[in-house]
Amino acid sequence: MSQDNIKFAYWVPNVSGGLVVSNIEQRTSWDFEYNKKLAQIAEKSGFDYALSQIRFTAGYGAEFQHESVSFSHGLLAATTKLKVIAAILPGPWDPALAAKQIATIDHLTGGGRVAVNVVSGWFKGEFLAIGQTWLEHDERYRRSEEFIRALKGIWSQDSYTASGDFYRFHHYSLRPKPLKQPEVFQGGSSRAARDMASRVSDWYFTNGNTVEGIKAQVDDIRAKAAANNHSVKVGVNAFVIARETEEEARAVLAEIIAQANPEAVNAFGHEVKQAGKASPEGEGNWAKSTFEDLVQYNDGFKTNLIGTPRQIAERIIALKAVGVDLILTGFLHFQEEVAYFGEHVLPLVRELEADQVALAA
Ligand SMILES: Cc1cc2nc3c(=O)[nH]c(=O)nc-3n(C[C@H](O)[C@H](O)[C@H](O)COP(=O)(O)O)c2cc1C
């Protein structure tokens, strides 16, 4: 097991409707003031990263969305330690613009705190609404890989030159370069996504899953990355419901699902068929998701971080044991529950990690 502490991120609710497609009461808001306070609570509570979301259009309770790069900059300016991951979608974004924007944010925020999550797109309606060409599943990943190679090339080299199928550069020197090379995350877990991660990404983000399901992905990626002489870390999504008793936590989950909005969940389920299921292997995110899974739009219930702080901490250690480096968390009432997680779950995780290190010594 890794000797490094497992890292924690939270989903930035820069999209309306919270992280579950349910009519249950959610004291979570998508506005900036709420998010600014949340980021400050999160960094005080021991969270390492915040992950913003990019959507240009959406229903499913997510009618309103703030843009991810400018929102991330706002959160970085309001905090001092937290790293913020700006979601970027190739197609609407061009790598030259993204590289320049992120380099400037890196300077404005002291260096080393801004990162990117290159997402490849699952929502055809969104692409068509903004006049973007919709590519087939694996073509989207070919484009994302060129995009990531371009970001890294522009950030690290002078006279960067590349001639790809999607992007071309001729002796381009970005000035100034970022103070520190921003980390590159990716979202997606199909075979094309895993192959891309094993070649170019620093981090691979995947939807919620069982420990066995995660292990299969980690083993595949690590083996492929080793063959490519590349190293990649893994982050897993989880919707956390931490309560004093397991019964209480399970009751909250039951209520979220009982109050799910079936029309919205089914419409979302229909749209995501353009993702994992549309890959040649029919694997990847949402390929096997049930109605209940889709109530949390990145399968976060499957990871089962639902119960008492101790149960949750032990399950996090089990994920770490199969090679997970980061837990990406979502909550019903973000501000209160991020603080609760920092106070009651995170210290237990650190204790268990210290026990493991002592055992190994
Ligand atoms: C943690 C995580 C965050 C994501 N964030 C976004 C996002 O902000 N916007 C977006 O359009 N897609 C987002 N995605 C979707 C992915 O980019 C990808 O399209 C989707 O997971 C399907 O990938 P697959 O077919 O390779 O499994 C995210 C995925 C994950 C796992």
- Under CATH, the homologous superfamily reads Luciferase-like domain
CATH topology: TIM Barrel
> What's the number of structural domains?
1
Envelope shape = globular
Helix content: 40-55%
Distance between the termini: 12 Å
Structural class: alpha/beta
Bound molecules: flavin mononucleotide
CATH class label: Alpha Beta
How large a portion of the residues is in β-strands, by DSSP E? 5-15%
The radius of gyration is 19 Å
Oligomer: single chain
Please name the CATH architecture: Alpha-Beta Barrel
InterPro entries: DMSO2_SphG (IPR024014), Luciferase-like_dom (IPR011251), Luciferase-like_sf (IPR036661), SsuD_RutA_monooxygenase (IPR050172)
Protein name: Dimethyl sulfone monooxygenase SfnG
Keywords: Flavoprotein, FMN, Monooxygenase, Oxidoreductase
GO molecular function: alkanesulfonate monooxygenase activity
Q: What features would you highlight for this structure?
A:
361 residues; alpha/beta; TIM Barrel; 8-stranded parallel β-barrel; two-stranded antiparallel sheet; 12 helices; 12 strands; globular; binds flavin mononucleotide
Provide structural commentary:
- The chain starts with 6 loop residues before the first strand and ends with a helix.
- The chain has an eight-stranded parallel beta barrel with strand order 1-2-3-4-7-8-9-12, surrounded by five helices. Strands 5-6 form a two-stranded antiparallel ribbon.
- It has one domain (7-356): TIM Barrel (Alpha-Beta Barrel), CATH 3.20.20.30.
- With 361 residues, it is of the alpha/beta class.
- β5 (160-163) and β6 (168-172) form a beta hairpin.
- It has twelve helices and twelve strands.
- Flavin mononucleotide is lined by residues 53-55, 87, 89, 119-122, 187-190, 193, 205-207, 237, 275-276, 279, 284-285, 298, 328.
- Pfam families: Bac_luciferase.
- GO terms for molecular function: alkanesulfonate monooxygenase activity.
- It comes from Pseudomethylobacillus aquaticus.
- Keywords: Flavoprotein, FMN, Monooxygenase, Oxidoreductase.
- This is Dimethyl sulfone monooxygenase SfnG.
